[in-house]
Specification:
The chain is built from two helices and 28 strands. The protein is mostly beta strands and about 375 residues long. The strands form eight sheets. The protein has a four-stranded antiparallel sheet with strand order 3-28-27-26, with no helix packed on it. Strands 4-5-6-7 form a four-stranded antiparallel sheet, with no helix packed on it. A hairpin with a 3-residue loop joins β16 and β17. It comes from Caballeronia temeraria. Keywords: Signal.
C-alpha cells in the first residue's frame, strides 16, 4: 500500500525524491506533497503471542534451496513473550506482507532472541539470545549464538566457553560462501568479538574467536532491561567495523576489524550528535554508503524526536531522520536487502505496536 505524505515527512523517509538515496533531488516548494515509494506494514506477532521484535534480516540471494525460507524473505526475532517479559521471547518469524507471520523457529521457554540475527548464503540462520527468568536484569544470563539450518532446526550453539560471548546483542556478517566472519557485540561485558568460521557439508565450524574491541559502557536499565554496545555495520572495502555504543550515545569505527588479532579498545569516535542520537541501537550500512541507526530513547531521550531512525555519513555528517512511532522506544532492528533490479528493500521494526514496515526503494548504483 502507499499514501501521500507532506514534504516534511517525505524528505525524512526512504523516498527517492528525498534525501536518503538521491541527494541531488530538487527541493519542493511550499506545501507540495509527494508519493513515497511502496511500502507494506505487517504484524510480527506469531501464534504464541511473542512481542518486542528486535532482530531484522533479509534472506540473501543465493541462499541454499529446499528449506522453509527463500531468498528475499524477511525474518524477525522476538525478545519478549506474550506476557511482555523481556528476555523470554522464543520465535523467529518469516514476514508475510499484509498477513500473519509464519514461524520459522520456535525454541525453548525463555530464550530472549536479540537483534543479533543474520543469514548465511550456505543455508544457515544465526540468532543471539540473552535470556531472563522473569523479565528483569536481576536474572539475566550470558546467552548464546544459535546456528539454525534452512528448516529452523538447531545445528549448534556458541557460548562464552567456546566463542567468548557474553550477551550477544547484535551481529553483522562478511559472507564469503564457504567461510565467513561474524562480528558480535556483547551487551553484558562491553566488547565485540569476531568469529571466523568455515562452512561445508558437515555444517558450520568455528575456527577462531577474537576479541577485537572493548571498553564500551554497559549496565542494566529499568526500561530497556540492559544497554551497552549494540549495532554493528562492516565495510569490507575499508575493513572497518562501525559500532553503535548506546550508553556513549555515539558511533565508533574499529579499523582492521576483519584481520586484527588484537583488542583495539573502542576504536575511533566517528559520530557523536546529541541533537540526533538518542541511544543508538541497531546499525546498518546502506547501499548509498551512509550509515543508518535506530534510536531507542533510553539514552538522551527527546519526546519531540521519538523512535527515530537516523542517517549519517561515515565521516559523521547528519543527513536525515525518520520517526517510526509517535511514542518513544519503538525503533530497534533494521536491515537492507541487497540491491536487485534497481530496487533495494529497507525494513524497520516498531516494537511499540509491534510490527515491521518494509519499503521498496529505487536505487541507481551509478549514483553511489
Amino acid at each position: 500500500m502507499s499514501r501521500v505524505l507532506p514534504r516534511s515527512v517525505v524528505i525524512a523517509t526512504l523516498c527517492a525524491a528525498g534525501l536518503m538515496f538521491n541527494a541531488s533531488a530538487p527541493a519542493i516548494a511550499g506545501d507540495a506533497q509527494l508519493l513515497p515509494p511502496p511500502f507494506v506494514t505487517s504484524s510480527t506477532v506469531p501464534p504464541n503471542g511473542d512481542v518486542n521484535p528486535y532482530g531484522v534480516a533479509y534472506v540473501p540471494q543465493g541462499f541454499a534451496s529446499y528449506g522453509t525460507i527463500a531468498p528475499g524473505d524477511l525474518l524477525v526475532s522476538n525478545f519478549n513473550n506474550a506476557k511482555n517479559l523481556q528476555g523470554t521471547g522464543t520465535t523467529i518469524v518469516k514476514i508475510t506482507p499484509n498477513g500473519n507471520p509464519t514461524v520459522f523457529f520456535q525454541g525453548a521457554q525463555g530464550l530472549g532472541l536479540t537483534t543479533a540475527l543474520g543469514v548465511l548464503k550456505a543455508g544457515f540462520v544465526l540468532v543471539g539470545n540473552v535470556p531472563t527468568d522473569d523479565g528483569t536484569f536481576a536474572t539475566i544470563k550470558p546467552g548464546s549464538l544459535i546456528v539454525l539450518n534452512r528448516t529452523g532446526s538447531i545445528v549448534t550453539q556458541w557460548t562464552a566457553s567456546n566463542a567468548g560471548l557474553d550477551g550477544p546483542w547484535d551481529l553483522t556478517i562478511l559472507d564469503m560462501g564457504n567461510r565467513a566472519k561474524i562480528f558480535v557485540s556483547n551487551v553484558l561485558n562491553g566488547t565485540v568479538v569476531r568469529l571466523d568460521i568455515t562452512i561445508d557439508e558437515g555444517g558450520v565450524h568455528l575456527q577462531h574467536s577474537t576479541r577485537i574491541a572493548s571498553g564500551y559502557p554497559f549496565r542494566g536499565d529499568p526500561a530497556a532491561l540492559v544497554v551497552g554496545p549494540t549495532g554493528l555495520a562492516y565495510d569490507p572495502q575499508r575493513d572497518v567495523l562501525y559500532v553503535a555504543s548506546t550508553v556513549d550515545n555515539a558511533i565508533f569505527a574499529v579499523y582492521g576489524a576483519g584481520s586484527t588479532r588484537h583488542d583495539g579498545g573502542k576504536g575511533v569516535l566517528t559520530y557523536a550528535d546529541n541533537a540526533h542520537l538518542h541511544g543508538p541501537l541497531a546499525l546498518a550500512l546502506g547501499p548509498n554508503g551512509h550509515l543508518f541507526t535506530a534510536n531507542g530513547d533510553a539514552i538522551n531521550g527527546d519526546p519531540n524526536q521519538p523512535s527515530e531512525i537516523t542517517e549519517f555519513t561515515p565521516q559523521g555528517r547528519f543527513i536525515a531522520q525518520l520517526s517510526v512511532d509517535p511514542a518513544q522506544g519503538g525503533a530497534f532492528g533494521l536491515a537492507f536487502s541487497m540491491p536487485r533490479h534497481d530496487t533495494v528493500q529497507f525494513a524497520a521494526v516498531n516494537d511499540n505496536v509491534p510490527n515491521i514496515t518494509a519499503w521498496s526503494l529505487p536505487f541507481d548504483n551509478d549514483r553511489r
